User: Fold this.
Amino acid sequence: MTTTHTHDELIKIAEKWLLKRCGFAFRELTTFASETPDVIGFRQGESILIECKTSRADFHADKKKIFRRRP
Assistant:
């Protein structure tokens, strides 16, 4: 059985997951590269960025973003 979540639900799940692994996490924080990741967390000099996708089409559309093509 497949469970379908909304984008907001996925963000909350990701944030909860990150908070277990990082000292803190932010939702929809705008970055220097003009990217707004759904959730980003920081720990010991590293970052973990999570993008939540609710469909395959959304996943593929993300590849077209300028900061994905030229990181």
Summary: The chain has a mean pLDDT of 86. Residues 7-69 form one domain. The two ends are 37 Å apart (CA to CA). The chain has one domain: 7-69.
